[in-house]
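>> received
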Amino acid sequence: MHHHGYLWTGPKERFDEEALRRPPHPEPPPAGSKPEQIQRYREVAAEFATVDLPPLETAYWLVKPHSLVRGTWDEAKEAAAWLGERLAEYAPRFASEAERGTIHLPLLVSSAAERLRAGGDVSHGFYLERPSYLSLAVVTCSPNRSMPELACSVR
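>> returned
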């Protein structure tokens, strides 16, 4: 078992493009559907696996390009440490003063280490100075517990 880290920052409006953050439906729209519905399905089917937007379900990071992996670790503690470093790096920009707190962030790191050791995934999101958003995720691989059918994106 190992872990991959992912980080995305960008405009909140882009993050809100939910159609590109979920996998396309397994079946295309039926014949006779509205042309705009067919076009939207084709767009999502073509872009979901390549777009850099964080997926709605954390495990789907595994279908994204290898270039989006920010780090790979064999130990949960190392992956949680990376998460903690990113939290510390971005904390001064968090929109919520409570989330910047010196108590809150270590609790997130400790909780992440436990969850990763147990084979789970970790995903956090924070509003930054308006109108930006930060998404951090660490995904467990080989296999992923929530979606074992997804192949590892790196190894």
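>> The chain has four helices and four strands.
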